[in-house]
Design brief:
Elements: E1 2-7, E2 10-14, E3 20-23, H1 28-31, E4 38-39, E5 42-44, E6 58-59, E7 63-65, E8 69-73, E9 76-84, E10 95-103, E11 106-110, H2 119-125, E12 130-134, H3 143-153, E13 157-161, H4 176-179, E14 187-189, E15 193-195, E16 205-208
Parallel strand pairs: 3-5, 4-6, 5-7, 11-12, 12-13, 13-16, 14-16
Antiparallel strand pairs: 1-2, 1-15, 2-3, 8-9, 9-10, 10-11
């Protein structure tokens, strides 16, 4: 399994067989920068806000998954779990879907814009191989809540998302506050992709990916 970071909360997951899933494609009008156009077999949408459901950068005619349930895209099993975009049961920002991907013997989880430390989700995903988690606050859990999530889930690899960058126009914090809550030895700043065949077996590692630009 390979994970490519497209920016904001968008990733392209590529199985060993070549099946591709894109999570939460975004609009430049919402985040301040364009997403590099990519092809994929399916798109998952955690909720219908413009920084998570814009298909302008998606090439071809992929399946779109935006509701709770189970399905299979070739060799990738996909499960979505309904939760909330805020800490008042959706009263402020509505619902949010967490997507769980299983392929190549690994489990990757995309939390979307989850708005609170949800014990139901934690029980569902505990011990996953990769956790893609929002850390910027304002519209999602913040850095400290994200740290609580990580401590409860114990993933092998954590990939932060939905945080402020120099080109971003969103009112969220940067990734550094989240990173400061970990031992520097457990934090790696990588390229725009992560090969997940060699996930660490002990402890949790944080990997900050750069945005893929074609």
């Amino acid at each position: 399994m390979r994970l490519q970071y497209l920016g904001h909360s968008s990733f392209r997951l590529i199985s060993d067989m070549g099946t591709t899933i894109v999570t939460d494609p975004y609009s430049a009008k919402w985040v301040g920068f364009e997403m590099t156009p990519v092809r994929c077999d399916a798109v998952t949408i955690s909720h219908h806000h413009g920084d998570h459901d814009c298909m302008d950068g998606i090439l071809g005619n992929p399946a779109v998954l935006d509701s709770e349930g189970h399905c299979v895209a070739d060799d990738i099993a996909i499960e979505s779990v309904s939760t909330y975009h805020d800490d008042v049961k959706g009263a402020k920002r509505g619902k949010n879907l967490v997507f769980i991907f299983q392929t190549d013997g690994l489990t990757a989880v995309h939390l979307g814009d989850i708005g609170f430390v949800d014990p139901v989700v934690i029980d569902k995903i505990r011990g996953c191989d990769v956790l893609m988690i929002p850390v910027g606050g304002t519209y999602t859990i913040d850095a400290h809540q994200a740290r609580q999530f990580v401590e409860a889930v114990c993933p092998k690899i954590v990939v932060p998302m939905h945080y402020k960058t120099p080109e971003s126009t969103l009112d969220v914090t940067g990734v550094e506050e989240f990173l400061s809550l970990f031992d520097p030895a457990d934090v790696t700043r990588g390229g725009d992709a992560l090969v997940l065949d060699d996930a660490p077996q002990n402890g949790t590692k944080v990997v900050v990916l750069s945005r893929f630009v074609d």
